[in-house]
Specification:
alpha/beta; Helicase, Ruva Protein, domain 3; Rossmann fold; five-stranded parallel β-sheet
Length: 475
């Protein structure tokens, strides 16, 4: 990652000198300008990540220059963050600046520790933004190369390797994996990578979602009058998928009668509509999927062995998300971007605390559950990034529930999400205050929050320096 560049814009030479001395030990590349015009000239020749911009400047004021920067930088991802420097008592101007797009403000005279903290937080945001951009580019590259199967774990690489081998064949494929692992994505990838099938239709049928008496008609179609309510001839999924791919999801739930007819269709490559006697040729590739262990279903007499062998010419196994946790950051970032686009929201990066929480969860609902959690967080979040507080996980794994400090449960979960979330905030922030010796500035740095935001949160939760231990309040 390239070094971070800072531009100090202040007409007082002594002020610029003091700021430089306070920050130069952190390794930032620092430049100075005595006016907005001089700063503009520097920015025309070079790029800066962060501006420390005094409001009171000769010529163009700091607020006017802030608006000018924003009007010139069409790409938010390329625009520098701006911290406004105001005089004591000019909070109204500071609020106006933040509303106009400034990242934060600091009032003169300020403590050097406060200056260092606000600059550090700004650069952490910049780093996170860069990481998000790199991750997005990586996702875009992966998506363009590998469709929708995101991730670099060994299990997902194995899935891709199997797709590479069999996509351009007509072999029947059985995709196995827990619910929510992305079995239909694998089926679609196989279809789209086929040079002979991709121009045809991809037709999906969820065998578990259809009543037994309807699935035969759904697959093979029916003639008019074949049963009560059959007012007209209807083509089934086999005919609709002719020349393409038929995906039979949850095939382990198919009745014995339909299993027999499916086996015959696979062997003869012909079907008969329900209530008809015409033999109709079909050119269909079958991809099936199940979360069941079909070998056990065969032993119990629930599934035909001969159909099983026809369906599993090639088997692709998808690992559950808990066994490929290294894919979670890529998936979560992709889902956050998709949610922002779908709901016309401002795209938010995923904070480090949120990512730790996501990585520590077992995801019984797999990728589908992760997608839903991220979408909800993107909709409900009000911050600059998605945090642990935004993540709604109804049933964390046991060791996460029992995480303790000084032997106490961090969060005693109840059945009310709002109460649990509030209690989580209270105890988590109280612990940070305790570890920071009651210093709000240091606690804000640990939490990755602005000092003002933490002070507001403390008032909202009824917290303060009364909390000297996690969950232990002294009246």
């Amino acid at each position: 990652m390239k070094s971070l560049r800072l531009l100090i814009v202040d007409d007082e030479e002594a002020a610029r000198y003091g700021i430089r001395r306070a920050l130069e030990s952190f390794g930032y590349e620092i430049a100075e300008a005595e006016s907005a015009e001089a700063a503009h000239a520097l920015m025309a020749r070079d790029t800066f990540d962060l501006l420390l911009l005094d409001v009171n400047l000769p010529g163009i004021s700091g607020l006017e220059f802030l608006k000018q920067i924003q009007s010139e930088d069409q790409s938010i991802s390329e625009a520098p963050l701006v911290i406004i420097i105001t005089a004591h008592g000019s909070e109204r101007l500071a609020v106006q600046a933040v509303k106009s797009g400034a990242y934060d403000y600091i009032a003169k005279p300020f403590e050097l520790d406060d200056l260092r903290l606000v600059v550090k937080n700004a650069f952490e945001t910049i780093k996170l933004r860069r990481e998000n951009q790199l991750l997005r580019r990586r996702i875009e590259i992966e998506t363009s190369q590998r469709g929708s199967l995101l991730g670099n774990s060994k299990p997902i690489q194995n899935v891709r390797a199997m797709i590479d081998k069999v996509a351009d064949t007509d072999a029947t494929v059985l995709v196995r994996g827990e619910s929510g692992t992305g079995k239909e994505l694998v089926a679609r990838e196989l279809h789209e990578r086929s040079t002979t099938r991709s121009s045809g239709a991809f037709v999906a049928v969820n065998c578990a979602a259809l009543p037994t008496e309807l699935i035969e008609s759904e697959l093979f179609g029916h003639e008019k009058g074949a049963f009560t309510g059959a007012a007209a001839r209807r083509k089934g999924k086999f005919e609709q998928a002719d020349g393409g791919t038929l995906f039979l999801d949850e095939i382990g739930d198919m009745s014995a009668n339909v299993q027999a007819k499916l086996l015959r269709a696979l062997e003869d490559r012909r079907i008969e509509r329900l209530g008809g006697d015409e033999s109709i040729p079909v050119d269909v590739r079958i991809i099936s999927a199940t979360h069941r262990i079909l070998e056990e279903e065969i032993e119990q007499g629930n599934f035909r062995a001969d159909l099983f062998y026809r369906l599993r010419v090639v088997t692709i196994d998808i690992a559950p998300l808990r066994e490929r946790r290294e894919d979670i950051p890529v998936l979560a970032s992709a889902f956050a971007r998709q949610a922002a686009e779908r709901h016309s929201l401002r795209e938010r990066a995923i904070g480090h605390d949120a990512l730790r929480l996501l990585m520590d969860y077992d995801w019984p609902g797999n990728v589908r559950e992760l997608k839903n959690v991220i979408e909800r967080a993107a909709i409900m979040s009000e911050g600059d990034e998605l945090t642990a507080i935004d993540i709604d996980q109804p049933s964390p794994k046991k060791d996460a529930i029992e995480m303790s400090t000084n032997g106490n449960l961090l969060v005693p979960y109840t059945n009310d999400f709002r109460d649990d979330r509030r209690e989580f905030e209270r105890r988590y922030i109280a612990r940070c205050l305790e570890e920071s010796g009651g210093n709000v500035t240091r606690a804000a740095a640990v939490l990755g929050m602005h000092r003002q935001s933490l002070q507001h949160k403390l008032r909202e939760l009824g917290l303060g320096r009364r909390y000297v231990a996690v969950g232990a309040e002294k009246e």
